[in-house]
Amino acid sequence: MKLSNRLQLILDHIPSGSRLADIGSDHALLPTAAVETGTCVSAIAGEVNSGPYQAAVKQVTESGLTHAVMVRLGDGLDVLETGEVDVITISGMGGGLIASILDRGENKLSGVSRLVLQPNVGEDILRKWLLEHHWVLINEYILVEDGKIYEVLIAVPEEQGLEIKNEELYQERIMGEGTKISTDWLLRMGPWLLQRPSSVFHAKWKSEIQKMNSILRSLSKSDLASAEEKSANIRADIKKIEEVLACLPKDKQ
Ligand code: SAM
């Protein structure tokens, strides 16, 4: 089975021999590939909706993997028993939804040694959740596929983070020739992505600036008193993003 580059990147960050749970698995492509390739000894595909659940059951049955991949219907981490898996993957949803799934199922995270998360939007919400819940972001990636940009975040429990400390990762710092980057901006842009800024990273933030400029154009037509304050905040954000991009090396990837 050929996975998309996005799902393959997630699979590449699951340690060999893991017991996996893929939450919001849809067609169960990732857990099926994880077991088929020998990366995982077993996998659970969790789905809250019956259509994707049925698609997952079909995929696992047709792959002949029902002995190793279990498909379970339920909300978020409800489908898991504590201690049942080592790695949890959640991909293809908003960062806010992923954070709420982790939050609601936090008791199921004890014994989990790695989270591999791929938010479609709201990456900052997810980084903040990880930071506030003692998970260390050990790496992150950005990739483009079919014209869409995706980020993949990899986190381990704080006690397992070894050399990487959350306080250092998100500590306000000066970049380039005096551009201050606050904890909030590190959460928004990604501490590792900022250290290795690829062309995709530059493209993402240029596109964010375009979206913000379009909001500014709409706001300029509004008579609401709040419009000016909103515009000022957006202009400040654009200025900060431009400053940060200007002080980063240009990656030719
Ligand atoms: N993970 C796959 C991927 O990355 O290609 C599928 C992503 S699909 C866009 C999102 C899936 O998450 C849907 O199948 C949806 O039913 C499921 N989902 C949404 N909220 C969920 C929840 N709280 N618990 C389990 N699954 C959920």
CATH superfamily of the largest domain: Vaccinia Virus protein VP39
Helix share, percent: 40-55%
> What gyration radius follows from the Cα positions, in whole Å?
20 Å
The CATH topology of the largest domain is given as Rossmann fold
| Overall CATH architecture of the largest domain | 3-Layer(aba) Sandwich
Q: What share of residues are in beta strands? A: 15-25%
User: How many independent structural domains?
Assistant: 2
Please work out how many helical segments DSSP would assign.
10
Q: Kindly state the number of beta strands.
A: 9
Given the C-alpha coordinates, what overall shape results? globular
Give a description of the structure.
By secondary structure, this protein is an alpha/beta fold. It folds into 2 domains: 5-164, Vaccinia Virus protein VP39 (Rossmann fold, 3-Layer(aba) Sandwich); 173-246, Orthogonal Bundle (Helix Hairpins). It has helices at residues 5-12, 29-36, 50-62, 95-104, 123-132, 166-169, 183-189, 191-195, 199-219, 225-247; strands at residues 18-23, 40-47, 69-73, 87-93, 114-119, 135-145, 148-157, 173-175, 179-181. The protein has a 7-stranded mixed sheet with strand order 3-2-1-4-5-7-6, with helices on both faces. The protein has a two-stranded antiparallel ribbon with strand order 8-9. Helix 9 (199-219) packs antiparallel against helix 10. It is globular, with a radius of gyration of 20 Å. It binds S-adenosylmethionine (SAM).
